[in-house]
């Protein structure tokens, strides 16, 4: 029993006496508060600047003009004198001119894609009977969509009442006053469904997360085991430390890519049989988008190289699994950030905050994957801003990965021979400068 207490006190002291334990006491409740409050606050964010919009009215009874007038009551939350929505153009076009409507929608789609227009509303004939009104936007703002829905619903309800007889039953009044759910489309006429877009994007982020964390920790534990068993000393007598490090990274990377290749083959089989399998269009728009899948594979590869090198760095400076846990938490959080603020990214994939976060190298892979799944570019063209930003993200992540490999290679050659204690920051800086 005495030996039990000795072990108990030793294990307890090893954890409690570390600075990371004290830091964790403070950071844990702060992080928990962020996980619960920040997503809700971002999802219900205020409109900070006026949003430009256009209206295409093919009904011919002035509904578009009434809609524009009704929207003028909305002001920015921080300035009651500035309109929340700025009209770019109101297009009134004959319903019989189908070619004109198609051409106009193509032009408006282009303006939305190039960020010259936030969104536009298209109103078709007999809208009070068919609910044939839709909103086209790259992103899905809950507040804007809700306001547009209420505004058009009020206008249509008033029209139904104006065209009705005086003596009406309750059911008839309810029918005329019913509200509609405005259809949301992306530029190009593709329908949008929030749940499918949100969950589809998160699914790919989770695949990236699980793959990188899984293979990265295998690499880290491999380095630790070989250090502690002294096998490492035998290995470096035959190969250079850099060859050993890159061999481990590339070997596990090949296994990772093999897994991805199998997923792509399975996805191709599903794609060619999507009709018979009755795969929902919203799911297929993400899973079978060649531009998105291409970028996903590239960012998955970059994420693996980047994070596995960091895991190799951690394994080389630590001696036990307990020591590595202090470093794994921030790595995990950086990969999970899109999951934490996913609700905001779905609504504002092109906001300054979202773009800025996606250009931070360690966040680039997961942030870009979610942004690309939301926007869903259908062709690789530099006229589309998301393609330009994705390519820039690839370049930034690649350069950062090379820098991480260079730093890790200098630390690895010394750290793998150290056992019994974790390297301190001054020691690591010395290895980087003089190795």
What do the pLDDT scores average to? 75
Largest sheet: 6 strands, mixed
- Count of helix runs: 19
Number of domains: 2
How would you write the strand order of the largest sheet? 4-1-5-6-7-8
Number of strand elements: 8
Assess the beta-strand content as a share of residues.
5-15%
Low-confidence stretches: none
The secondary-structure element order is: HHEHEEEHEHEHHEEHHHHHHHHHHHH
Written description of the protein model:
The protein is an alpha/beta fold and 435 residues long. It folds into two domains: 51-191, Periplasmic binding protein-like II (D-Maltodextrin-Binding Protein, domain 2), CATH 3.40.190.10; 194-434, no CATH class. The chain contains 19 helices and eight strands. The chain has helices at 2-16, 19-43, 63-71, 98-113, 127-130, 142-162, 170-176, 194-228, 231-235, 241-272, 274-277, 281-287, 290-317, 321-340, 342-347, 352-358, 364-375, 385-415, 425-434; strands at 51-57, 75-76, 79-83, 85-92, 119-123, 133-137, 183-186, 190-191. It has a six-stranded mixed sheet, with helices on both faces. Helix 13 packs antiparallel against helix 14 (321-340). The longest helix has 35 residues, at 194-228. It is elongated and about 95 Å long.
């Amino acid at each position: 029993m005495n030996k039990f207490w000795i072990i108990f006190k030793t294990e307890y002291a090893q954890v409690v006496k570390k600075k990371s334990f004290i830091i964790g006491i403070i950071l844990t409740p702060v992080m928990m508060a962020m996980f619960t409050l920040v997503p809700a606050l971002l999802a219900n964010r205020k409109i900070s600047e006026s949003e430009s919009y256009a209206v295409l009215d093919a009904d011919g009874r002035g509904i578009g003009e009434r809609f524009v007038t009704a929207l003028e009551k909305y002001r920015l939350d921080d300035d009651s004198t500035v309109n929340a929505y700025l009209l770019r153009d109101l297009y009134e076009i004959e319903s019989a001119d189908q070619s004109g409507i198609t051409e106009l929608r193509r032009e408006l789609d282009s303006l939305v894609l190039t960020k010259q227009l936030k969104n536009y509303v298209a109103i078709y004939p007999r809208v009070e009977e068919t609910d044939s009104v839709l909103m086209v936007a790259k992103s899905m703002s809950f507040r804007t969509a809700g306001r547009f829905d209420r505004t058009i619903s009020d206008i249509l309800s008033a029209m139904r009442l104006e065209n009705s007889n005086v003596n009406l039953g309750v059911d008839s009044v309810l029918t005329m006053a019913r509200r509609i759910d405005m259809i949301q489309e992306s530029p190009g006429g593709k329908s949008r469904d929030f749940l499918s877009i949100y969950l589809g994007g998160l699914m790919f982020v989770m695949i990236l997360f699980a793959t990188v964390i899984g293979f990265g920790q295998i690499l880290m534990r491999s380095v630790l085991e070989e250090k502690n068993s002294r096998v490492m000393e035998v290995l470096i007598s035959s190969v250079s430390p850099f060859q050993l490090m890159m061999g481990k990274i590339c070997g596990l990377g090949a296994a990772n890519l093999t897994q991805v290749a199998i997923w792509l083959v399975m996805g191709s089989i599903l794609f060619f049989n999507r009709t018979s399998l009755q795969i929902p269009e919203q799911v297929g728009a993400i899973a079978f988008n060649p531009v998105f899948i291409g970028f996903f594979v590239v960012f998955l590869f970059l994420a693996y190289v980047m994070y596995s090198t960091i895991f190799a760095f951690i394994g080389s400076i630590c001696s036990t699994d307990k020591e590595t846990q202090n470093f794994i938490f921030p790595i995990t959080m950086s990969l999970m950030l899109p999951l934490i603020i996913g609700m905001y990214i779905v609504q504002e994939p092109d906001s300054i905050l979202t773009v800025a976060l996606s250009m931070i190298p360690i966040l680039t892979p997961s942030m870009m994957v979610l942004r690309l799944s939301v926007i869903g570019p259908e062709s690789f063209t530099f006229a589309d801003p998301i393609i330009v930003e994705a390519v820039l993200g690839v370049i930034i992540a690649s350069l950062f990965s090379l820098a991480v490999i260079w730093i890790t290679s200098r630390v690895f050659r010394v750290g793998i021979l150290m056992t019994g204690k974790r390297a301190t920051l001054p020691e690591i800086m010395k290895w980087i400068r003089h190795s």
